[in-house]
Structure prediction request, 158 residues.
Amino acid sequence: MTAPSVVIDANVFVALVDARDTWHSQAVALRDALMAGQAQLIYFDCVVNETVGVIGRRAEEQKRAEQFGQLLNRLRQEISPSSITWISGEGERLYEQVLDLCLSHEGRLNFNDSLMALFCREQGIRYIASYDRDFDHLFWLARVFDPAHLQALVGKRS
Prediction:
């Protein structure tokens, strides 16, 4: 069985970076299971962008702005720039398809989610680590949200 390629969504990435996040323990367990299974973890630039925005806003809203630097350092420790797959430039080429996908899902998938999903379809990437159930409506993309679910999916699809 070939190790799967798995895109990491922003909600999982935020949870990995922020130990106070509700999903932190589950995200760490999921990442560790993916790594143990030798999955190729894929971080898109739009996810990094969204993650920085969320941790910055969260730090400010939770009156812990002084921790933003620590959160950003955790992000840097989690991935290096060379580990980022840069897809935002594909937004121009896929613009109409992205908007059509947003429309067909009545806005539940935002622009970045739709761009990621379409890019995954083009590249044959079948898995996304996410807590966002809206990805469940895409037949070409399986959402992975915990280690047990990962095993069930990978075993079923291989």
